[in-house]
Amino acid sequence: MTNPDSGETSPGALDNHTIQLKMRNLIFVMLALVCLGLQAQSPEVLTLDACISTALERNIEVQMAKNNAQIARSNKVRAMMSFMPNLQAQWNYNLLFGTFWDNVAARQVTQQRSSNPNVSSSVGLFQGMSRINDIKRSTYAEQAATQGIESTKLNAKTNVLSAFLATALDKENIKISEERIALLEQQLEREVKRESVGVGNMETVYNFRSQVANERLTLTNLRNQYRSDLLRLVQLLRGDVGKEYVIEDVAVSEEQLSVGMASFQEVLSESFAYAPAVKSAEAARMASIHEYKSSRANVLPSVNLYGELGSRYSSQGAANPNNDLIPEKAPYFDQMNWNQYEFISLSVNVPIFSRYQNSNVIQNAKLNMLNAELAEEQARQQFTNAVQQVYLDLVASQENYRTAVENLEALEQSFDFVKKRYETGNTDFYTYMESLNNKNRAELQLANARLSIVFRKKILDLYKGE
């Protein structure tokens, strides 16, 4: 309050003003926190392109396929390097006890400390063409692994498309069910008013209440199905299942629905030109052929060249090449200079009896080759079946769409007519519900056909590598 004599504000008024300011600030902070909380809790919108991109980044099978390709490349380098000679250095220091001949000191001794440092190298001159076949095998194995990456990516994309389609169809079904409930509730409200003024009857009211209750149960089931399909989609993305998600509405243009279709043979031919799974199986078959050829080289002779450069030391002494004396305590490095040697060896190895190990390896390689041929045939058949199924679904969806458009147009006109007759009392409840059910089924068929055309076309484009 203000003192009338002095014109000053009383302390009590200042306290009230301060409290009001604090309350305003507190309310503002609380509103800001609520807004931030609502923003943080808003569901994440999933778009089709983002889902495919995320699935490829997080898919474990894709990552494993990439690792397998890296292993195949490493094996190819190893096979190519097998033509190169190896090179190794060795140093040792030995303590020997007992009676034996010392080659360095050129006499019999009872104990010795010795060393034989050396550098050696060996190279295979002929290995029965096994190394050439090993290079070819590893080259085809690398091609199979590389195509395996593309095949795994294709599977991940088609799985995401199928899950997204199922979720989008659920969303359309929910939308139609909600519109149906709104219409039935309007009719229920109308019948309640008519009954209250004595021009209606309770039977119709009960019928509409029953229909509304049934439709709400149907809506609940549709929403549960939507959550289930959405969960499957999120799991494919390896997303956080604790968050809320919604899928983006799929826009379908008339151009997408009216795209012409090539013949199945043309589509299949284009698809096989890409077909990473088939190419991977074909490359794996070629790799198995060269693995079989490489295994047969085990029964052929091999030629190897070996060379060694080194020196020797003995605690019993060594011969001095300058005076042919053998001092017993010749220093280590002096002996290294005196006892240098070069050694070269050419060897031919002929396998005679390997306890059936070589024949077992050859037999296993032959069976692996036969299995690879069957795997390629199976891959071709599975890919053909997949393309056939998607192509048939696309053609059926286009036919269903054309039929559904005409059917829905006729059923909408029929429902409008029946609705007016029902509202004027010229038809009964059951005729009205039958007409409504027919219209809703046509709406579902049309929505299903529209989305199926778009998504089946996308899957078919993926099979063709587009």
UniProtKB/TrEMBL annotation:
Q: Which residues form a coiled coil?
A: 360-414
Recorded hits in Pfam families, A to Z, give: OEP
Highest taxon listed in the record's lineage: Bacteria
The regions listed as transmembrane in this protein's record are none
Gene Ontology CC, one term: efflux pump complex
Per the record, the major location class is membrane
Q: Name one GO molecular function term.
A: porin activity
Going by the UniProt record, its keywords in alphabetical order are: Cell outer membrane, Coiled coil, Membrane, Transmembrane, Transmembrane beta strand, Transport
Q: Where in the cell is it found?
A: Cell outer membrane
Under the heading Gene3D superfamilies, the entry gives: Outer membrane efflux proteins (OEP) (1.20.1600.10)
Record PANTHER family: OUTER MEMBRANE PROTEIN TOLC (PTHR30026:SF20)
Q: Which family does it belong to?
A: Belongs to the outer membrane factor (OMF) (TC 1.B.17) family.
* UniProt protein name: Outer membrane protein
Q: What is the lineage of its organism?
A: Bacteria, Pseudomonadati, Bacteroidota, Cytophagia, Cytophagales
